[in-house]
């Protein structure tokens, strides 16, 4: 929707939600203390908790931006922002699947992330804030993410868990969850389907409840591991993406992966079936169509989570 923090908070209040995730500085019109306090006050008025993210922290990643300074400066700013708006976490990440195909593969990016976060760990601890490291756009598999978190230190770093991105990295998100759940400090939930294709597989993310995920079990696992943690919905549906694991090129990004490591993912591929991408009718503006489509998917997801998973602290009666 291209909304800033104020409108997102107002929308969340209209839907009687409990929290908002502002997963990047671009949601704020300013990082000045006065503006951040206004955003915090608005959230307080609606009894909403704010969680924030800072984005990529690896200077050797494919798409690292120095818009906010180097990674150390970025993290210092993020910790200040989190403290002001009372976010318990600062979400961070490497980048995307493209980083797996850079010279040296993903490991130099992991090493850089560990270095940067360890250098900022005292500042985070003093502020009472944890880093939430995200598996973003298929850059990390669960084993790699867990090793990264443990290398930084579980006292200051946890997981920002995204099941949709776990699928993209050729994992069954339900299995993915089992190893990472004890370390989750933030999350973004969406459902998914995946099916076999000539080059391997194709997937789409879906509204929660429309895909292959056992959503009640997923939510219950998170609730048991981290009582009171919000379930954030990130709808990115109506877009088919390939996972060409039957091509030699794809495996260059996974030089140490074995066939046994993707068997659960392959089982998912056999369970799924192709779904079509909805297109706007003739004469309908594509941008407006996409916005309304995603809004409907988001609200559908919220309804499913309330009705089937007992999610939400506030009354469903509007």
Automatic annotation (TrEMBL):
Pfam families: AP_endonuc_2. The keyword Kinase does not apply. One of its GO terms (molecular function) is isomerase activity. InterPro entries: IolE/XylAMocC-like, Xyl_isomerase-like_sf, Xyl_isomerase-like_TIM-brl. SUPFAM superfamilies: Xylose isomerase-like. The keyword Isomerase applies. Residues 23-238 form the Xylose isomerase-like TIM barrel domain. Keywords: Isomerase. PANTHER family: BLR5974 PROTEIN (PTHR12110:SF53), HYDROXYPYRUVATE ISOMERASE (PTHR12110). This is Xylose isomerase-like TIM barrel. It comes from Rubripirellula reticaptiva. The lineage of its organism: Bacteria, Pseudomonadati, Planctomycetota, Planctomycetia, Pirellulales.
